[in-house]
Amino acid sequence: MALRIAELETPEVLVDRDQLLRNLGRVQRIAAQHDVALRPHVKTHKCIEIARLQLEHGAVGLTASKVDEALVFIEQACGPSFTLAYPIVDPRKLQRAFASAGHQNVELRITVDSEAGIAAAEAAAKSCNKTVSAFVKIDVGLHRCGLVEDDPQVVRLVRLISSSSQLRFAGLLSHAGQAYTAPDIARIAEIAAEESAILQRVRSRLASAGFDVPEVSVGSTPTVLAGNSFEAVTEIRPGNYVFLDATAVRLGLASFEEVALSVVVTIISANSSYFIIDGGSKVLSSDLGAHGTGAGVGYGVALPIDVAGAEAAPLLVARLSEEHGFVERAGEDLAIGTKLRVIPNHACPVANLAERLTITSQGEMIDQWQVAARGKVR
Amino acid sequence: MALRIAELETPEVLVDRDQLLRNLGRVQRIAAQHDVALRPHVKTHKCIEIARLQLEHGAVGLTASKVDEALVFIEQACGPSFTLAYPIVDPRKLQRAFASAGHQNVELRITVDSEAGIAAAEAAAKSCNKTVSAFVKIDVGLHRCGLVEDDPQVVRLVRLISSSSQLRFAGLLSHAGQAYTAPDIARIAEIAAEESAILQRVRSRLASAGFDVPEVSVGSTPTVLAGNSFEAVTEIRPGNYVFLDATAVRLGLASFEEVALSVVVTIISANSSYFIIDGGSKVLSSDLGAHGTGAGVGYGVALPIDVAGAEAAPLLVARLSEEHGFVERAGEDLAIGTKLRVIPNHACPVANLAERLTITSQGEMIDQWQVAARGKVR
Fold first, then answer.
1. Which one of A88, A269, A348 has the shortest CB-CB distance to B145?
2. Subunit contact A336:B116, Cβ cutoff 8 A
3. Contact A359/A366 with Cβ under 8 angstroms?
4. Which of A304, A353, B301, B352 is the most exposed, fewest CB within 10 Å of its CB?
5. Predicted ipTM?
C-alpha cells in the first residue's frame, strides 16, 4: 500500500505529480499561443524523468548552465538538442561537451559574451572537428553576464563568430532575471516588453552591419508567465515554472496550491516563540529568492500537510540553522511530532540539495526520482 | 605530475591539508589544556577521511545531527562512540540507528528535550532490546531546541529517563550558537562562561533532586576557540573548526590564511561593476553565517589563488545567482579566465553541496575525498 505523506520520514522533498503536469501544460500553452519554441532550463529539477515529461509535452530541447549538468541529460539521450546558456571559457569543458553530444547525436548550442569565450569554443570545436552554433548573450537588465545593447563589442563578436570556420552565429540570448525584483505582475510584463525591445534594437543594428539573427532566445519564469508580448522572440527558456515556489506566490504568479514542490518536515521541538522543524538550510537552502532577491522575511512558509487544510494561515519559516527551521508560532499550539509542508522561497536550490524527489499524487507517494544532475556545477 | 590549483576545472572545493591538520591540532590542544574530551561534529565535513584524522588526533568519538548522517560513519566503523546531538522524535529513525550501532559495536548516545522524544527513544530501544544513554538538551541562549534552565520539565525528563528500563541519563548537552552573533572575541568568551554557569546551575538543581549528572557536553567553534573557562564541562563538540571560514575571520577567531576550505573559481564574464565568477549559491550556498547570522554584506571574499598574493586586498562576493557570483571590481582589472579562491561565509553548507573535496598541499592537488554523508538529512 502506498505511503501517505504523513507517514514519510522527514525531511523529504515532495513533488505533486498532478500539479507538476498542470505547470508543464500551462507554459507549453503559452509557447503555443505566442508561437515560440519552449526549451526549458533543467537547473530547476536536474531530473531525467521531468526532462522527459517536458519533451513529451512539446519542448523542442533543453537548456543547462554547466557542461557536467548538460552531460547527465545528453548521455541519457534526453532530447534532440541542448543549449548551454552560460558563457563557458574553459576549452576542456567545451571539448567534453562537444565530444559527448557528437557521440549521442545531440545538437549542442553554446553561449558567448567575450573573445575569450569565442577562442575557447573555437579551440574545442576544432579539436572535435565540429562546427558549433553560438549565441551571443545580451544583458537586458540583470547586469550579470552579457553585453549591453550599445556595446560595439556585440557586432565585433558576431563578426568573429561568423568568420570562424568552427562556429556558426545562432542568434541572441538573454535572461531578464531582474524580473524577480518586480513589485507586481504589471512590472514583470513591462520588463518582458523592455527585453523584447532591446533585443529588437540589437537585431536591427546587426542587420545594418549585414548579419542575420536566426534566433532570439529569452527566458525566465516570471517574464514567461506574466509577459504578453513575445515580439521578435523565437524561443523561451524558463526553468522554475515546473515547480514554482513562495517567490512565485509573492510575485503574484501563482497560488500556494499551484506550487508543485514542497518539503514535508516534523516539529521536533518548540520554545516560547517558535516551533522547531527538522528541515534547515541543508534542505531548504538559505535563498531568499532567485539571484539574491527576496522579500527579506523568512525562508518559506509552512502549511498543514492535508490539502483540505490549505486555507489555514501559512506560518512563516523565520530562520534557519543547518538542520533546523524556526517556524513562528503565531498563536498556534501544535504538538511535537506534527508534520508540516514547507513551500520554500526558491525551489531550484532545494531540488539540488535533495538526493531524490518523492513524487506524490492525492497525498500518496507514487514514485521516487533521482536528482541525477545534483551538484554538477562544472 | 600533480595538478596545480590554477589548472583545475572550476568551481572546485579545495581543502588545504596542511592547514586542516593545523586546525585539528589547535582544538585538540585546547581540549587537552582544559582536560575535556573532544567529540567533533561531522556535519561540517561529512567526510570519512576527515573523521579518521580527528580520531587519530585524539577525538573520543564523533557527533552528528541526523541519523542517516551518523550511519555513514558508523557503517565505516569510524570511532568507538557517536552522539546524536539532535532531538529525534521518529522511533523508526532511532531504531535504524540503534540496530546499526549495535551491529558495528559502536556506542550511540542520543539527545532529548521532550516527552515525545523520550517515548520515541524508549520504543526504539525496546524493539532493539538495548539500553541507550540519553542527554537532556538545555537551551543556553540560542533559543532553538532544549529546555531553559528553570523549566521544571528538566527534572521531570531526567526522572523519566532514569526510571526507564531502556534509557540511562547521560548528562546535559548544549550548543551556544548565539556566539555567532557576538561582535568580538571578548563577548564570545562571556557567552562560553554564561553557558558553563547555566549548566552548573542545572546540575545543582538536579543534584538537589537526587540526580547525578555524569557528563556536561557543550560545543560550538567560537566558544571553544575563544572560551577560557570550561568549568564543569566534560566534553566539547565543535564542528566548523576543521575548516573555518569568513565568519570565523569576521569574529576574530582566525585569519584568512588559517581557513582550510576555499572554492577555486574562474572569472567567466565582467560588467562595469562586477567580475562574474562561475561559483554561485549551488557551490557557495546563500548562507550569510551560521544560524542565519552574518554581517549582511556579501557571500564571502575572493583572493588571488597564489598563497604569496594573500596580502592582496580581498574582493567582496557581493551577490549570488545559482551558478554565478558577483565579485566587486574595486578598481581591479582582471581578465576573463582569471582564477580566484573564494573563502565562503560558512564552510559547512559548502562541503554539503560538493560531490568531493579536492585536497591540496602547497598549491598542488594531492587527493580527492568524497563528501560521503552529503545530503543525509533524515
1. A269
2. yes
3. yes
4. A304
5. 0.97
